[in-house]
Amino acid sequence: MNIVVTGANRGIGLEFVRQYLARGESVVAAVRSPSAAEALRALGAAHPGALRVLACDVGDDASVAEFARAMGDAAVDVLVNNAGVRGEWTSLEAMDTAEALRTYSVNALGPLRVTRALLPHLLRSETRKVAHISSGMGSIGDNTSGGAYAYRMSKAALNMASRSMAVDLRDRRVISVVFNPGWVQTDMGGRSAPVPVDQSVHALVALIDGLAASDSGDFLDWRGKRYEW
């Protein structure tokens, strides 16, 4: 299969690349700065010809368009929209609206930009799966602690975008799902997080493999259970 992973230079994205390469897939890793992606270079050396690292800032229309052009005519079987930012977790009074807009642009609009740009590539495949990495903090029903306005709002918006894509692209057999990967041990999640990144991604890869048309539009956790909107 041909897999595209955004935000692939570290954390969950890097682990997706690692696990897909390990099982013999071809992977395109989308990162803002390929020259700084040392871990990806090491993976490329270990899997000759199986990994391409391309520049893509999901928060910038022109960058996403150039990324799609660099893909050429390649089919995309699975798109993992993983790129995201934590933003500033501040009180309501301290919130910086400019920073909040940047967080929204990356976390909510970024997956829309990439999916739209790569739609012709997805339609060249028979698989046509789009997996958006969301967060439990994007669940309205599960919000009992408040705060983190920009991050929470951006992920809730991503969830709605995926649902709309599932409806709008159903006739073209594109599956769109959002996943809560759990509280994962990454730079963003911190060392005290309970879920090792390899465990989360291993489960997510298996879930993506098993996605069917009936799952399109769902919000699932990394264990495969439907998550509260």
Structure, explained:
The chain is α/β, with parallel strands linked by helices. The protein has one domain: Rossmann fold (3-Layer(aba) Sandwich). It is 40% helix and 15% strand. It has helices at residues 11-22, 38-46, 61-70, 97-122, 149-168, 197-210; strands at residues 2-6, 26-31, 51-55, 78-81, 129-133, 175-180, 219-221. It has a 7-stranded parallel sheet, with helices on both faces. β2, α2 and β3 (51-55) form a beta-alpha-beta unit. α1 (11-22) crosses α6. It is globular. It starts with a strand and ends in an 8-residue tail after the last strand. The mean pLDDT is 94.
Write a brief caption for the model.
By secondary structure, this protein is an alpha/beta fold. It has 6 helices and 7 strands; from the N terminus they run E-H-E-H-E-H-E-H-E-H-E-H-E.
Topology of this protein?
Blueprint: E1 2-6, H1 11-22, E2 26-31, H2 38-46, E3 51-55, H3 61-70, E4 78-81, H4 97-122, E5 129-133, H5 149-168, E6 175-180, H6 197-210, E7 219-221
Parallel strand pairs: 1-2, 1-4, 2-3, 4-5, 5-6, 6-7
Q: Which characteristics define this entry?
A:
Rossmann fold, 6 helices, 229 residues, globular, alpha/beta, 7-stranded parallel sheet
* Total helical elements: 6
CATH architecture: 3-Layer(aba) Sandwich
> Main beta sheet, described?
7 strands, parallel
**What is the averaged pLDDT score?**
94
Instruction: Give the strand order, joined by hyphens, for the main sheet.
Output: 3-2-1-4-5-6-7
Helix-strand pattern: EHEHEHEHEHEHE
How many DSSP-defined strands?
A: 7
Helix/strand/pairing category: alpha/beta
What overall geometry do the principal axes of the alpha carbons give?
globular
Strand content is 5-15%
Residue share in helices? 25-40%
Radius of gyration (CA) equals: 16 Å
Count of separate structural domains: 1
